[in-house]
Design brief:
Structural class: alpha+beta
Low-confidence stretches: 434-439, 546-552
Mean pLDDT: 95
Oligomer: single chain
Strand content: 25-35%
Largest sheet: 10 strands, antiparallel
Distance between the termini: 87 Å
Radius of gyration: 30 Å
Number of helices: 19
Length: 957
């Protein structure tokens, strides 16, 4: 007689019944253990160990060699959903292939990042797709569909979206609160997540480190109220690393970890990423919360059920039925070709006055110069390169090495101190391990090399290439290409292939020394210590440590001798060539990355000097910007005949750039975010109110350096025959795009909508659709868009709902947000918004129309918003409040101590707020107030008051 399998092993049963069976077989301790990122095996039931989390932002990361695609912002610049889907599929296949060889590789992938590129100084801008929520959502849908696969039951990988919610600052990222008004929340931040979740290819989300409206994201009520309302699938919420501990340790939101952990679990966090692979701390906190009655077994089971559904979906319990189990596609020819295609499509031609394209057949000399001319930079979420192409490599291959000259443009220097010249001892040539090639679950744990001899001082100097990456942050590199780095033992060695690591150990800063003419100390930024010469080698001195000589605990004083200025080398190369390509940009580990925001949009001064030197020597100068971020390039844009931008393009970056320059591919990338002309155009980094401070292309009224959606081509395109008709809940929009130029090329048709006469501030225009298409010369294509009428709407704070106002809307089509070629209008019927019904609904404090000098804070630890003052001269404005036949009294719900000043029709009523028992003790205070009809309401807060809401009572008849 055949033995029947346990029900949870029976593939004929639906997942829900199998999970029910498995849950009741697991002990409480076994279920609790599953709530940590590293869930142990349950041997008695034959369950293997499981981990949440595998980085896969633009390729398999942190696990050694993999295909490296362009950065996410570069994928965003392609504006090509289908391409991004294919990249996601390739990445998912490589995850599966690597998993088959290494069970440390997880199938629950933490990608993509859908945080919006609201502010160009955000250090992690490279990880997002766009400043536009619609474009971000479309690309996230594409990437997650590729990662997920198309089987109806089993998933190739299980994508988790990062980072919920309103997260655009690394400065104080675990303690800063994003003040997000309801309109920005519903119209902007939630929209980026909503589309991908509704599309059905998302397994969960990861909350961000920051707080929103005073409440940590790991306690967000929106996880239940919004996220889990968008789909019937049970989404898994994975905490960010260490964030559960932050609730007590840095945010001080709770007094004990048991309270914090219980609150996070009940808010919807299912998997706790904390204390690395040591699960004992977090599971101990969960058990402590159970013992204190802060949690019950139902709370545990709810989270475990979600995690088990994820595991069932990945085929763990049905290996013979898993269609992806035997996937072996890794570093295939198709993947290499796709990496090249993606890098080509990511190139954005910003300006061209006829200099481009270049003709390789002409046999003319091209100078390739600049600090990134022979670099293929990776970022924190890259895999290890198997293939590598720099701009120099690409141009040599395409134009012929004999026609290409090169100058990096680094300053060549020698450092001298009292003991002699700084020198790099010869190393054993056989010792050549490459930093970062070993797969690691956490690359922050990769230590610097200690097998090489430390630097010394002597009679013979070593020449070093010095690069200033901006703000005085330097790297020093020896002739063989290794960077000076500091290992755990404190010695300085020429040991690193590239700057990198969670704390970069390859950056320094020179500081002038008072009383020493030309003398400078060398500060190692990673340790915060000065470089000192000791008897056993050059090291960074520990605090209070005395090395050799008087005062050396403060660092050795060096004199810098410059043997060649980088701009001189660049000028020589430029003068010897017919055309110059200057490659500038950033290193993704320096001056802008996770944990570090950028300080400025300006190009580093050293790189500014390089393009100026090249242009002075040769007016046929192309500036190729290879960077994770926008730069303010007003002078270069005015002076140079051609500019391009591409994000760090992965393994095929150099080949792609060369093919674009040579007209093998006509550029058709488009900017996924606004490029501003200067820092003066930017709002504060922590100002999340894109409406009030007029941020992004949606609201910015100035003239950017290059607008959202901008990108030129080697061809020309015409737009005509735009039609727009309403069919029920949809707008059907069609237009014809024609290649009117002489070369085959891609064009990105962009569709925008605009409310003609809105009752509230609305976007100047908003992207409603996009399509990348390829057209031969003279060819045309009819492009169809379907726009839900709801996309014309906004969040109505007066009634707390989404609304589409009746009226006229303009449908615009063109080549960028500032290059509209054709337009049509549609009229939408409906119910007008109407004034605020304050007599019936009152006014929620956060539902303002405009504000000055306030921020939104948490009404309670679990839910709700309130508003508090940041400055004395603050104001909240609520327009068109309907007091009907008349109000006779007002009541404010507030905590803290101070006063609420309420002004209607020039008359101000002051409502005192006596001290309450803490910020969450809200009490009602009343006063007389006379108002009738439709009036604006203005509120000013005095003292440490938190205002939750205002209600009104009718005047006595």
């Amino acid at each position: 007689m055949t033995e029947q399998p346990q029900p949870f092993r029976d593939p004929q049963l639906p997942f829900a019944k199998r999970i029910d069976d498995l849950l009741q077989r697991l002990t409480l301790d076994e279920r609790v253990a599953m709530l940590h990122q590293f869930a142990p095996a349950v041997d008695r039931l034959g369950l293997g160990a499981f981990r949440t989390g595998q980085e896969a932002l633009h390729g398999v990361a942190w696990m050694g060699p993999a295909t490296v695609f362009p950065q996410a912002v570069g994928l965003g610049a392609t504006w090509n959903d289908e391409l991004v889907r294919r990249v996601g599929e390739a990445v998912g296949n490589e995850v599966r292939a690597k998993r088959a060889e290494d069970d440390r590789v997880g199938l629950n992938v933490w990608a993509p990042t859908v945080n919006l590129l609201r502010h160009p100084l955000w250090g992690r801008g490279e990880e997002g797709y766009s400043e536009d929520a619609g474009l971000t959502s479309a690309l996230a849908v594409a990437y997650t569909r590729g990662l997920r696969g198309d089987h109806p039951l089993y998933w190739r990988t299980a994508p988790v979206l990062k980072h919920w919610l309103a997260h655009n600052n690394e400065t104080d990222r675990d303690t800063a609160s994003s003040s997000v008004r309801p309109r920005v929340l519903h119209e902007y931040d939630l929209k980026a997540f909503r589309g991908a979740v509704r599309a059905g290819a998302v397994a969960g989300v990861m909350p961000a480190y920051n707080l929103v409206n005073g409440r940590p994201n790991h306690l967000s009520p929106l996880l239940a109220q919004q996220l889990r309302s968008w789909t019937e699938r049970s989404l898994v919420v994975c905490s960010d690393a260490g964030a559960p501990s932050n609730l007590v340790d840095s945010e001080h939101y709770f007094d004990t970890h048991e309270e914090a952990t219980a609150a996070a679990l009940r808010a919807g966090v299912d998997s706790f990423t904390d204390h690395g692979q040591d699960s004992a701390v977090m599971t101990g906190r969960i058990r402590g919360a159970l013992e204190r009655g802060l949690l019950d077994e139902h709370d545990i089971d709810t989270a475990v059920r979600r995690l088990l559904e994820l595991r069932f979906s990945l085929g763990e319990f049905d290996p013979d039925l898993d269609p992806y189990a035997d996937t072996a596609d890794f570093d295939t020819e198709d993947h290499r070709a796709l990496a090249l295609e993606a890098a080509e499509q990511a190139v954005v031609l910003l300006k061209n006055e006829g200099l481009l394209p270049l003709d390789p057949a002409a046999g003319r000399t091209v100078a390739v110069v600049g600090l990134l001319a022979d670099a293929c930079k990776l970022d924190w979420y890259s895999g290890t390169l198997i293939h590598r192409s720099t701009p120099l490599d690409g141009l040599r291959e395409r134009f012929g090495a004999e026609h290409v000259v090169f100058a990096e443009g680094a300053d060549l220097v020698r450092l001298k101190c009292a003991e002699g010249w700084l020198r790099i001892p010869a190393a054993d040539a056989d010792r050549e391990p490459v930093r970062g090639t070993e797969g690691a679950l956490d690359p922050a744990l990769l230590a610097g090399r200690t097998d090489l001899p430390p630097l010394t001082c002597g009679d013979t100097p070593s020449e070093l290439a010095l690069v200033d990456w901006g703000n005085g942050v330097l790297t020093l590199r020896e002739p063989a290409g290794r960077y000076l780095s500091v290992a755990e033992d404190g010695f300085v060695r020429a040991s690193a292939d590239e700057p990198g690591g969670w704390i970069v150990q390859e950056t320094f800063r020179l500081e002038a020394v008072e009383g020493h003419d030309g003398g400078q100390r060398l500060l190692h930024i990673g340790t915060g210590r000065y470089v000192s010469v000791a008897a056993d080698g050059v090291k960074v001195a520990a605090p209070g440590e005395v090395t050799s000589g008087p005062g050396r605990a403060d660092g050795t004083v060096f004199e810098i001798e410059v043997t060649e200025r980088g701009e001189d080398a660049v000028a020589r190369a430029a003068a010897a060539a017919d055309t110059v390509v200057v490659v500038v940009g950033n290193d993704a580990h320096i001056n802008g990355r996770e944990t570090e925001d950028r300080a400025t949009l300006d190009l580093p001064a050293q790189q500014e000097r390089l393009w100026r030197a090249a242009h002075a020597a040769n007016p046929r100068t192309v500036l190729a910007v290879t960077s994770a971020y926008p730069y303010a390039l007003a002078d270069a844009a005015a002076a140079l005949p051609a500019l391009l931008w591409t994000a760090h393009g992965g393994q095929a970056a150099g080949t792609a750039l060369a093919r674009v320059l040579a007209d093998d591919v006509s550029p058709a990338g488009r900017l996924p975010q606004t490029w501003y002309a200067s820092d003066a155009e930017l709002p504060g980094l922590l100002d999340y109110d894109i409406i009030g401070s007029r941020q992004t292309y949606l609201y910015y009224r100035g003239t950017p350096l290059y607008p959202f959606g901008h990108g030129l081509s080697y061809s020309d395109f015409g737009y005509d025959s735009l039609t727009a008709e309403r069919e029920g809940d949809l707008l059907r929009v069609s237009l014809t795009v024609t290649n009117t130029g002489g070369v085959a090329a891609d064009e990105v048709a962009q569709l925008y909508v605009r409310a003609v006469a809105p009752s509230v501030v609305r976007p100047l225009r908003q992207l409603a659709g996009h399509r990348r298409l390829h057209l031969a010369p003279g060819a045309h294509e009819r492009v169809d868009f379907t726009v839900p009428v709801a996309e014309l709407g906004h969040w109505d704070v007066t009634h707390g709902r989404w609304t589409v106002e009746p009226g006229t809307y303009e449908i615009q089509a063109g080549a960028s947000s500032a290059d509209i070629r054709i337009a049509a209008v549609v009229t939408v019927d409906g119910e007008p918004t109407g004034p605020r019904p304050v007599m019936a609904r009152g006014v929620a404090a956060a539902d303002y129309d405009e504000q000055l000098g306030t921020e939104i804070v948490d009404r309670a630890r679990t839910d709700g918003d309130a508003v508090t003052a940041l400055v004395t001269g603050n104001e909240l404005l609520y327009r068109r409040c309907d007091f009907a036949a008349g109000a006779g009294g007002v009541a404010v719900s507030a905590s803290g101590e101070g006063a609420v000043l309420i002004t209607v029709d020039g008359t101000t009523v002051t409502v005192p707020v006596a001290a309450t028992d803490g910020p969450y003790d809200y009490r009602t205070r009343r006063a007389e107030l006379s108002a009738s009809g439709i009036r604006d309401l203005r509120v000013t807060l005095r003292g440490a008051v938190r205002l939750a809401g205002i209600t009104f009572t009718a005047a006595a008849e």
